[in-house]
Write a structure and sequence with these properties.
By secondary structure, the chain is mostly helical. Helix content is about 60%, strand content about 0%. It has 6 helices and no strands. The N and C termini lie far apart (about 40 Å). It comes from Tetrahymena thermophila (strain SB210). This is Transmembrane protein, putative. Keywords: Membrane, Transmembrane, Transmembrane helix.
Amino acid sequence: MTSKTIILIAIISTLALSSLLLLNKKSSLKSDQPTIYDWQSCLQNTVLSTCDQDDDPLDVDECNAAATTTSSCNSESSPTASQSCTHWWYFYETSLASEALPDSFYECASDCLNFAQQNNFYYQKFFSPMWINCALPTHHNN
């Protein structure tokens, strides 16, 4: 293995562990939990890449498949959306921007995580920034 491969594996492992800790410890973050406004502000300042931006043309189909299955899990309009995701989107539509991200947000991310991880590009460039990174307490009041 090259040193780049080892570094990449270490980074991916750190991100995966951080996301699991965040998703599993969500209730202990209540006081530091970002608000809907914090989350949306973070998203506006984050570049979310789509599968057609993948540099590996052979990977685009796998990326699109991961995006499709993840969307089926977390989209408010999908008949196969997880119950947590349905609750999250209802909360999102009816809440104030000053309200903290609810447990249903983190549960939705957790429900759909395995689908997103089916493709590294999709997970790293779209799902993780949106559902994990922007929901971290460090983005609170940014």
